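tool=predict chain=A
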Amino acid sequence: MRIAWFHSHLLHVNSGGTRFVLDYTEALQRSHGHLITLFCDVASREAVTQVEKAGMKLVQLDRESTNSPAYWLTLPSRIKRKRVELEKVLQDYDFIINSMFPMNWLVCDFKLPKIQICYEPFAFFYDKGFLQNFRLHHRLFFRAMKLLYAGTDKAAVEKMDQVITVNKTNIPKLFEEYGITASPVYAGIDTDMYKRAGEQEIEELRKKHPGFPLLFHSTDLTGIKGSYPLLDVIAELRNTCPEVKLLFTVYVNDPVGTEKFLKRISELNLRGNVEFLGCLPKEKLPLYYSAVDFVCQPSINQPANWPLKESLLCGTPIIAGIESEEVREFINGCRIEVRNTNAAVVKLLSLFQQRNQLNLDESIAELLKDYSRKSCVALLDRIIKDIYENCKNR
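tool=predict ok
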C-alpha cells in the first residue's frame, strides 16, 4: 500500500513523537511491504539521513515549523497553499496517516482513507500543566492560538476514519477533548536491543562513573521532563547520600539550553554529583540503563515514557512522574512529584533502602508481551488494512 504519513516537523530525531514516526514508518515498509513517504514542514539533516537509509521518501513542505510564531500567524494561508500542491501528489497514494495538528487540518478533506495517531490532545491547546512549563508570553500566545484553531483541530479529528493513541491513559483524555474513542497502539520497543548488558561491561562502566546510588536521566531540557526540579532533589538527597550521582544525557542539539542547565548544576554546587554524558547514541543506552541503580524520568504530565520501559527490560528499576503508567509502586520503582522536593526526597530515600527487595519480573514479562515493536507495528498494519478495506466497500 502507498502511504503518505504527515508529521509537523522532524527536527529532533530522539524526541518521542519523531522517534515514533521514524521507527514505525521504517518498520511498516521493511516488514509489511508498504511504500511510505514522509511529509513534514521541515526536517533536520539527521532525520533526512535516517529516512534515506530506511529507503523511504521525505518531502519537506515549508521553511518554517510550529516552532515559529510567524508560522502560526500565517497558518491558514500555509494550509491552503500546501493543499493545492498536494492535490495531484496524493492521487498516487492509497492511505494517509497524520500525527498531530496542524497536519490533521491539512489532510482531513482529502478523499483517501485516513487515521490520526494522536499521542494526546494537542498539548499546546489543552494541557494546562504542560503549558505551565513555559514563560508567560508563550502561554499567552498559545492561549490566543487555541482561540483561533482549537475548533479546527477538533473538526479535523472528527473527520478521521480512526484515531489511534499510544497508551491507555490518553483514551479518556481524548474522549473528553474530542468526543472520540481512540484505540491504543503502543509505542513499541526494540526488545532485541534493550536487554541487560553483561556483568563485566556493567562493572567497567560503574568504575568509570563512581557513585551510589547511581541514577540516569535523559532529557530534552523542556519543562515536561522535570530536569531542573530534579537537580533540586539531588541537592537535597546529597545531605543524606553524599555519594549520590546523576548521569544525564541531552538528546537534542541545544547548546544554549545545555549551557544553562550546566550553569544551574554549578549554582547548586553539584558538579561532583551530576555528570553530563553529552548526547549518547541510542546503541549505548542499554549499557547505561543496565549499569545504573535507577533510571530517573520524573516527567510532568507524561503517562508513558520510552526510557522507563527500556530500562525495565534492562533489569533496572525506575523513578517516574506521578502520572506514569509504567510504575508499580515499590515493586519496580516509584513515582514522585519532582516539583515537591521534600516529599520526593523522602520517597526516594525509602526506595533506595528497598532496592534489593524490588522485583521486575512481572514488568519485564508484560513489556515483552505487549510492547515489542514487532507486535505493535503488526497491530498498526492490521488497522490500516482493515480501514482501507472498509473504505473501499462503502
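The longest helix spans residues 136-158. The mean pLDDT is 93.
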